[in-house]
Protein 1
Amino acid sequence: MMNRHLAMLMMLPPLLAGCMALKAPPQVTENPAPAVVAATPNPAAASMIAPMVEKRETLVATGYAVISVQNHKLSAQQRLMAIRASKLDAYRALTEQVYGQQLDATTTVSDMVVMSDTFRTRVEGVVYGAVLVSITPVGDDTYETTLSLDRQVVNDLRALYLGQLAAKRK
């Protein structure tokens, strides 16, 4: 069982970007995750998403924000703004896990030398049903917010997203 947790943890870094961190090892279930294909009208779109369905019971995302960079003179207001920013960062990380992230990259090469390399990422989606696990200060100048999302809600969100994709293509 411990080896399964270690294997899952080793697979997470490529899937989780930036400031995502796990508070506890992910829970692993012996039953396979329900297929997204059955809940979507477009099998081609579902085939792109189906391999990404996790076997974990919940997704966990953590966001961070620095207090001192918040744009306010009062320290109490800076703390409140940092709490809000860390929560939004956690929602971004959760949205990224549910829907993935869009990556645009441009590379300019001249005379076989890279002149410029530009990357732009974008995360878009709707998240509902997230549970606020904790908001805690980290050190003297940072807040950390952790959210979790039940697997069934993730499956519902993905099915709705695939349905919207199918409707746009018609």
Protein 2
Amino acid sequence: MKLNDVKPAPGANQPRHRVGRGIGSGWGKTAGLGHKGQHARAGGYHKVGFEGGQMPLHRRLPKRGFKSLTRASVAEVRLSDLQDMKAGDIDLAALQAERVVPRDALAAKVIVSGELKRKITLKGVKASKGARAAIEAAGGRVEEPAAPKVEKKLPKKDKAKG
């Protein structure tokens, strides 16, 4: 067999329909659009999901779920990743330097996956309860990032106009 002998299977390539080319073609007169009505006219289509004015399905069903906008910016770190790192004091910059988390990560969280057998200090990186227990069991410690202070603004009281 040679490349110039290769051909598609019989019936695989069919010529395209040329509509509106006379009665003998089988696609003449109405060109497959039928008689009258919205779908027979030029420009006679509604947007996807339009149900003739009835409340569409996507609006009849209740809203479900939640997609966090910050999910992609918080990277997961496994205990086994911390075991393989060279640094003893681990913060976000150290994780990014050793390419454990992506450079665009704004935060990181340590999860329980794998084993940790060496002493480390975790600074400014969140840890799950199990991960915290595993780090402390190995002789290390976790310094959680300080929670940001949120100032409550009291509503202004309007003085009565008199």
Protein 3
Amino acid sequence: MASQQLKFPLRIPFVEQLGLELWAFGDGKAELRVDLAEAHLNSWEVAHGGVLMTMLDVAMAHAARSGAGHDLAAGPGVATIEMKTSFMRPGEGRLRALGTLLHKSTTMGFTEGSVFNEAGQLCAHATGTFKYIRALPTSGRHAKPLQYNTPDKEAP
């Protein structure tokens, strides 16, 4: 896909903490990469399953969002409705996650994602369903807007 790292269109502090990098985003596809560090490892000293699942979730969410037929800089957001993950082999070294939008309706995106190791071997695969939303109702019924990565951009 892309040969240059991109800036995430939305601010996601958890993704920033994990050090995930966005390498492609558009036309119903997304690519993430990460160089595994000690903080990413489990007791076997390979990628923790939560790291792989987060990579899959974020790659699929970005694929769903990029294929929504809207201005990517303005929305909509997506919320994970369900996700099914299968693990094939331990993740080691530099990992790459690819997300693809398989089908979309006016309110939902159906996706799949895969994580590969440096040798191109499949480490994990997932399918996911995402709901297109503009704001997220939280406690007290207050809606929280998306947090964009551009300081001059306000939520629509």
Protein 4
Amino acid sequence: MSESLNNIKSIALQMELDGIKFYNHLASKTLHPMGRAIFKSFVEDEKLHAKRLQALLPSQDETIQETDKSTAHPGGRVVTVFQSLGEELKRRVDVHTNDIDAVRLAIEIEEKGVKFYEQAAKDAHDKKEVELYRFLAGEEKTHFSILKNTLEYLENTELWEAENEGRIYDMWMNMVNKKT
């Protein structure tokens, strides 16, 4: 396995591990029960993602042997979405003034995650890895959608509830009309 593909896997794993910490931190700071529940569910998702990625990584012995044989730059370091945002991310998480800001920050992270996994799927050569990266990109897209919906709810609860009630009413009417 090439060093660059191994690095992609390592970066992906580190992103998921960082995501666990990130969403745990947001869950502890979020006041709204819905936001807190969403962040806690994301923690569980990230744990499952990390477990799947760990299965793709070679053991430490294999990594040492490959590193010795490769021409990879010894000073190269793994950079994740969380590390690339660095101090700004820490500042924004620690000083966010409300739940809406926390959700907006999580949306940014999920967008970057989607891009990373889509690129990783393009770069991967193994069919199993391509499928995993596509799956992870899909998971990040799902998180993004949930967060966007949550943001809409938090920013305009009354309108959000009215729209959802309208959708439920429409579904109910469709069901009633099909029976007749």
